[in-house]
Design a protein that fits this description.
This protein is of the alpha+beta class. It contains twelve helices and 19 strands. Helix 1 packs across helix 2 and helix 1 crosses helix 4.
Length: 340
Amino acid sequence: MRLVTFEPWPNQSRIGALTEKNEIVDLNLAYALYLRDVEWEPDYYRMASCRVPPNMLSLFEGGDKSLKAAQAAFKHVTGRGAAAQGPSGERLVFTSKEVKLRAPIKPRKFFHTAGNFREHHEEAQKAGFSHPVRPWIVFFQNVDAIIGHEEPVIYPEHLTRELDYELELSVVLKKSGKFFSPEEAMDYVGGYVIFNDITARDIQRREMESGVFSLCKGIDTFCPLGPYIVTADEIKDPHNLYMELRVNGEPRQKSHSKKMSVTIPQILAHYSAMGYSAGDVLSTGTVSGVAAFSDDPEAWFLKPGDVMECEIEQIGILRNPVVSWKEAYPDKAKKLGAKE
């Protein structure tokens, strides 16, 4: 399944799955219908809220049981077509134009790993970056900075002049665990999602003088995630996926997940000592082609008006425009300008 978080109406968040026609099936209501029609469950609404809740984090916290229930509900409704209705006549199927997609999941923890692609270390070394970019690097991403497909990345010009992009494949975990081996790791994977690790390079250089960084990657809107989560059963080999990031249609990063220096099971096992919760997200590092390490960084750094497209084979395209902080927050920008 391709799982989405969507708003059919303002401020009403639901979870769904995409059909082959890119229509969205409301999974919670679909499961209520399935319970009534197939399992003859009289308390179908309450049971649906327990097994396939209308929140993506809660769905993954239900593990395989919830994911299998969602799959059964999805098949039940898609067999009926776009005219399918909920148990009380509710709308079940929406076109993508009728809804607003949000970030597919807001995890409790976002494990941000780096250095897992040797090519990124090599380009950093060639550009004279201050620190080696090798395994094993990990830090926590600011989950409040997460945005979804088509939502704008806000460029805070008063904080940075070197805004960069980083295409990454990320893993969504379907159960909690700690201290497990690489051989056990894939049992914890619930799905895959695209992540664009937006980075303020000038802030990063200053932060890394102390050997750590956080603000440079955790500023509001610096964590595009989406457009949806592809469940693990749909991806036979996550190490066999083409990856490309484009800015205004121009390819900047072109690589392949097979180029990871360490594999996803190794990454997951290595950091399992910190303990995972169901629904946690773990990134697997970026590939070569970032602006900062290019031959002309000034020309490649992001600018207001740019549009980024992150594409990973079998997963989809995550698209985000870049807008000026002054445009997004004119009143705040005016006040800040007056103080300066």
